[in-house]
Write a structure and sequence with these properties.
Layout lengths: L13 E6 L9 H12 L4 E6 L10 H7 L3 E6 L8 H14 L9 H12 L4 E3 H10 L5 H13 L16 E3 L1 H12 L2 H6 L3 E2 L1 H7 L10 H10 L3 E3 L7 E3 L18 E7 L5 H9 L4 E7 L2 E8 L2 E11 L4 E8 L4 H17 L6 E5 L10 E2 H9 L4 E4 L4 E4 H6 L4 H28 L15 H17 L9 H17 L4 H18 L8 H17 L7 H14 L11
Parallel strand pairs: 1-2, 2-3
Antiparallel strand pairs: 4-5, 6-8, 7-8, 9-13, 9-14, 10-11, 11-12, 12-13, 14-15, 16-17
Length: 572
């Protein structure tokens, strides 16, 4: 199965096509609506019931509309009898006309490059050829060339991975070259039924069209599959690869754990099948005795070639839960759990709209409903020392319970991080209150380096930092100032259109994470790329959002403090 993120994005209109002859449950309508909600936000949805000529669509329309406000129309069609096709076409045109992105303005030269790339007959061109297209369309600046290709990559119009250590083959790809190639592999009956997901480079020659997928491109396609966490290389020669999504569904017999176990659970509002397969791909180097199946895996933790712990990780798609159980050496169970949670956290972070909760079992009562882990952390932060379970007439030592999952130091760091976020919120409020005393910049000004504004901003920030000093100590004035600027960015982003807000927030998160590293460890190219992306976003919605000028100023000031030269996008 291709990752949902291949298809489900914001800035889209979704057609959910179901079969009128099958039930609402068989069509999995709610499953798909929840996935769209998780990955596509409030993007509009049209439910299409096909084969109306055989049977009417039998679903609870009112209940679905009440539960999912983004359903814009429910239309029954028949391709055979041409029923409902004109109505569907009209509904599609109406909904597309309502998408704000349709009216976003871009420099004409950018639009011309976009059209050329979309209409090119080749499935891929070199990055240098892309640069040539930019020059022909009067976009000679390297920064603008990078901004444009990043924008087209985000919109899914082309794919480019020039910063990837393996995929920096500087190709600009048509997305359907990638999706159709990978889908053809995933649909191969031999891989699905005989080899159980294992394939070799020779299989690509057998399965793929040699004209569209020449042999010299096979390694690149395999590299893309690794990048999308679809497969991993097995330790053998000649090389073989395993597609986790094609593993057998049957759980092997050798998955029982002996003795006492440390257990942890993730509960999801909707559980995409890709989460557990991506987890298997990410942890393949720790697989124990080659035990894995479609919805689970056995992993090992070892030191000095000695196995200390065995873990069983399995998903229950029906209940929308993932279970972790770790056995053997008690001293390292918590450490191993932390490693596994870090992998899940990385996957979850790439799916920001998923609703996920963490749970732990009641010690000694495996059949009792588990305890909300974040609730336990909150109780500890409030100074509670016990947690009471009335139904069991039981009081648990809260610190002892939590110590089994995370060290006290780790939990205290989490609390400090939360206090720091609160402090930045307070600093931001003080900053904005003081800023209101000064004449604001006009929305139409193009002077983003006005010295008077800079002086006012510095004066206000100094006052804000002084008033906030009671909340925490900082590790350097420059970092504190940058964090303040980032806090300002977050407040303005809250006003951005929902369809781009999450992408911009991820860029801001990346900047914040990078600047908190020691200076020698910072990835300056990555920082520059993220800051340029923020400037590009600001330029595209200029005039539509209050405070966009200050947003741009803040980005430029962050770049200045980090020694990164930034330029405003051309044409804005």
């Amino acid at each position: 199965m291709l990752p949902i993120s291949f298809f489900l994005t914001k800035r889209s209109l979704y057609l959910l096509v179901c079969n009128c002859r099958t039930s609402e449950e068989e069509n999995r309508i709610e499953y798909w609506l929840k996935l769209i909600e998780s990955f596509g936000g409030q993007s509009p949805v049209i439910i299409v019931g096909n084969k109306r000529d055989e049977q009417p669509l039998d679903i609870n329309r009112k209940a679905l509309r009440e539960k999912y406000a983004n359903i814009q129309a429910i239309i029954e069609t028949s391709c055979q009898d041409n029923i409902g096709i004109d109505e569907l076409r009209t509904a599609i045109f109406q909904q597309i006309a309502n998408l704000k992105e349709v009216y976003d303005l871009l420099p004409l030269s950018w639009f011309e490059v976009k059209q050329q790339l979309e209409s090119m007959p080749q499935d891929f061109i070199s990055y240098s050829n892309y640069i040539g297209i930019c020059y022909k369309n009067k976009i000679p600046e390297e920064q603008n060339q990078e901004q444009l290709i990043d924008l087209l990559h985000r919109l899914g119009l082309v794919l480019n991975f020039r910063e990837h250590p393996i995929l920096k083959d500087t190709n600009v790809l048509k997305p359907n070259w990638v999706t159709e190639g990978i889908y053809t592999l995933l649909s191969d009956e031999i891989l699905k039924t005989q080899t159980k997901g294992i394939f070799t480079p020779a299989d690509l020659s057998r399965i793929l069209n040699p004209q569209r997928y020449p042999i010299q491109r096979h390694n690149y396609l395999i590299g893309l599959m690794k990048e999308f966490e679809l497969c991993f290389a097995l330790e053998c020669h000649p090389p073989q690869f395993l597609i986790a999504g094609l593993l057998p569904k049957d759980q092997p017999e050798q998955t029982e754990l002996e003795g006492e176990t440390l257990e942890f659970q993730y509960h999801y509002k909707v559980l995409p099948e890709s989460i557990i397969s991506r987890f298997i791909v990410n942890t393949h180097e720790k697989i124990y005795n080659k035990i894995y199946w479609r919805s689970g895996v056995m992993l090992q933790y070892q030191e000095n070639n000695e196995i200390y712990n065995i873990a069983r990780i399995k998903a229950d798609p029906e209940d929308k839960k993932i279970f972790i159980a770790i056995s053997r050496r008690k001293e390292t169970r918590r450490l191993f759990l932390g490693i596994l949670r870090d992998v899940f956290n990385k996957i979850h972070k790439s799916l920001p709209n998923l609703e996920i909760t963490e749970w732990v079992p009641v010690p000694g009562y495996p059949n009792h409903p588990p305890l909300d882990y974040q609730e336990l952390l909150g109780l500890e932060a409030m100074g509670e020392s016990t947690v009471t379970i009335g139904k069991l007439k039981l009081k648990l030592n809260l610190r002892q319970l939590l110590d089994g999952y995370e060290s006290l130091e780790s939990r205290q760091k989490l609390q400090r991080d939360e206090l720091e976020r609160d402090r930045l919120t307070i600093v931001n409020q003080i900053y904005n209150n003081n800023q209101a005393e000064h004449k604001p910049m006009t929305q139409n000004t193009n002077n983003f380096h006005n010295s008077n504004i800079t002086n006012v901003a510095n004066e206000v920030k100094d006052k804000a930092s002084q008033q906030a000093s009671d909340f925490t100590q900082t590790s350097g004035a420059n970092i504190t100032e940058i964090l303040l600027l980032i806090s300002n960015l977050r407040q303005t982003v809250a006003q951005f259109p929902p369809e781009i807000r999450d992408d911009i927030t991820i860029d801001i998160d990346d900047v914040e994470a990078e600047i908190q590293k020691p200076e020698p460890e910072r990835n300056k190219p990555k920082l520059k790329k993220r800051l340029i992306a923020l400037l590009t976003a600001a330029s595209l919605i200029a005039g539509h959002i209050a405070g966009i000028t200050d947003f741009t100023n803040n980005v430029l000031e962050i770049g200045d403090k980090l020694g990164i030269e930034l330029q405003l996008p051309a044409g804005k």
